[in-house]
Amino acid sequence: MRADPRGAQRHGMKRITYRKYTDEDLGISAEDLMQALSDYFLQSGYQDPYSSWYSFDPNAMEELLRQIQQALESGDLFPDDQRQEMLERLMGMSPDELNQLLRNLAEKLRQEGFIQFDGDLQEPSSAVGQGRADQPGEAPEIRFEVTDKSLDFLGFRALKDLMGAIGKSSFGSHDTRELATGVEASGSSKPYEFGDTLNLDISATLFSAMQREGVKLPLEMDYRDLHVHQSEYQSSCATVILLDCSHSMILYGEDRFTPAKKVAMALGHLVKTQYPGDSIRCVLFHDSAEELRMEELARVQVGPYHTNTRDGLLLAQKILRQEKKDMKQIIMITDGKPSALTLDDGRIYKNPFGLDPMVISKTLEEVGRCRKQGILINTFMLAQDYALVQFVQKVTEICRGKAYFTTPYNLGQYLLMDYMNRKSRVIH
Prior knowledge:
alpha/beta; Rossmann fold; flat; disordered N terminus
């Protein structure tokens, strides 16, 4: 059911009427619709906003309605056993009925808290016109924004999809082979030593006292009777995702940036929900570099930028110096060689051709500093051109990290498996 607040102020009191969600939305849930629209909500500028004819507004209600129509016509929103029937029903709708359906679904997303916008799509006088079959519900005056709930949901679904693809269902903290005293007991108990967490093993403590004093009341206990639980030592990890948002990430007929954002959001959700002792932060690098809150990642688009990898490494090091974790790592996702450098006077030096000796040498200097600080760099390459491969091979040689040749389709599997495989790392 949903409430209709129209006419609420006529007699000085709020009146609510109810209508059923039946034929209005074809039984489509807001969560399924969000999943179908995930690429649209995470779009990265693949429509090339730098061309002279560009008129795409990703936050226009008209565009959202068009994307909903495309999702409906694909048939993926309907159960397999009902798909043909629902598609035939959809094709038999008049333009007015189709526009009303699209407005109902957009309104449903708002009521579920996934998007927000001003205006009432159900009012005949609203900005949504009757439109035509090829122009569903024109709404140039209404713009929408995705909410934080949407971004959290999209991160969760991206993580769930990736985990299903690699056959994993649950994860814990980064386990090691070391034992330490802690709150979660998973090992045998040991005599208490100064400095141990006082997580008493009551049974072992009482048994030690009875062995020494015999079974009697009152039972006298001594310092040496104290036993504490041992728990597996779980290391903490500080991670900086270094994400390339240069223009090449949407060129050559392929959108590489949207999958990269999805993976970064999924990793952020994994850390937040399964590894609370870890930290994860995000740095974008382009002509320069900037830190971005993970919550804002979904809204980022590429720009007409070069690739200033050195500035990204500098900022990542600054962030990791603030973290007091056992492990520190940089996860770099890129599809191009370094092609820009910030000079001492603040000017940006750019050379997109080949491997510029000055750009490469300054960038590799920062890689060497990362190694001295114990920062591991794992690089995920979304391209395999000769210059990029040469550069990444040198990076891995210096910092003893790993390099992965990936595509937008398997990036998530490689990245998440690499992150979780570090659970077996021994901390000395």
